[in-house]
Amino acid sequence: MDFWTGIETLRAQPKARISDLLANYNRTARMKAEFGPFMFDMSKTALTAEALDALLNMASGVPGRRDAMFAGDRINATEDRAVLHTALRGNRPVVVDGQDVMPGVHATLERMRDFAADVRDGTFQGQGGRITDVVNIGIGGSDLGPAMAVLALAPFHDGPRCHFVSNVDGADWEDTAKTLDPATTLVIVASKTFTTIETLTNANTARDWMADTVDDPTAQFAALSTAQDKTGAFGIDPSRVFGFEDWVGGRYSVWGPIGLSLMLAIGPGNFDAFLKGAREMDDHFRTAPLAENLPVLLALQGIWHHQVCGYPTRAVLPYDNRLSRLPAYLQQLEMESNGKSVTMAGDPLPGPAGPVVWGEPGTNGQHAFYQLIHQGKTPVPCEFMVAAMGAEPGLDHHHKLLIANCLAQSEALLKGRSHAEARALIADRFSGDELERQAAHRVFEGNRPSTTLIYPRLTPDVLGGIIALYEHRVFVEGVMLDINSFDQWGVELGKELATSLGPLVDGGDASDKDASTQALLGQLLAWRT
Ligand code: F6P
After folding, report:
1. Which SUPFAM superfamilies does this entry report, sorted A to Z (predicted)?
2. Fewer C-beta within 10 Å: the chain N or C terminus?
3. Predicted model pTM
4. What ipTM was estimated for this complex?
């Protein structure tokens, strides 16, 4: 049975209430997966054992594609590229075009370690002495991964302070630069292509800023890029350029040179642990049977909720304040990868591909948008995550509250509150029609799906495992949907039009633009004079 026929069959079947399913004594055992430091529970969804079996059958093409990816086949067919971010954290030979790529990966990693050690111990200095601050200038995959991971691993920081500038809005640079001393700052220009206008604009501004104080400004610059000719033209010495190959996609690149700021912050040893955690998840993904495979199960419940149940979005809700950039990171990972509408063959997709992904850390979100999750008309599958322990032993009472809130939310989503229960709550205050009216507002439908990922504590290896888990989840969904998860043509048109609009903001002829754009531009130009 082909994928979309299987989806239609599952769509047509009546859905059980989650609480009825949970009354089955072995459901929690069947609807969970455990691996290493992780336990993933998906028993609070309406996915039945039979539906899961059907989805597992529909995933029969995954192992072949997975093995092709790990082997270095050119599975990114529209760009004719291999997809080998796993090699950046790997320890087995991978042959591309007849050559093992691993010696090159390890040599670059070794150069990164040496440079990071030099910066951290003061061997590498700025004009004003030891480097106190690092600014990573990059955007998209050249920003979100390291920015997310540097924040996530704050308790492990023992290196220079790290800052991230991504937006072409000068406010981003200005608000960062005003806190820094150029003489003790290292600027890292992170750009796979070294052509991205936002990054180059910020890098040029940073170089001018540095030049106002420092005699040899680019001596305090490093670059992370596949385009070493361009980094040289910018003036960065090759000894501080860390290259990678086109088989690393931007949104999958935190494991190599793009992770340099993270390595500077937490040190090479902790960075190795981060890679190890991801590598262990890779090994699990490669070898575990599909029915026990964490990324596969995460993907299947994603397909269940979006393609089968038709829920348009999913929320990622880490009960971990230091994972507050994880939803933004996953937005790029999932939506840039699977926000597609044609199959590998170029035919229109018969149904939706990737859902909208969004989220915020708990408990903050509870006091903002959870209202809609509990009582809005459209169910939002929630992906909770929480650690057993926080990094602040003296504040364990905070962490207990965090855990309690996380579990309470998934329980509330599941149970809801019936009209009778709502009425009983307020029967002492209202009566008659007013009691019914007031009770209606206090009813929660319940039966709202959620999954929960738990782990002992957020350490570098656990973070590596979480990111690799989500990477492989995106991969599995992409294979099942028969789409290319590794290109991003959708962002190109906006880039082209921004280039053509640039001169018009300087007053150029806008007559070939649509009427709306002309009107907006006209008013903006009027206000600029
Ligand atoms: O937004 C499109 C994109 O190409 C992303 O895929 C990428 O992560 C980002 O721009 C940055 O690209 P680069 O690293 O080449 O500057």
Report:
1. SIS domain
2. C
3. 0.96
4. 0.97
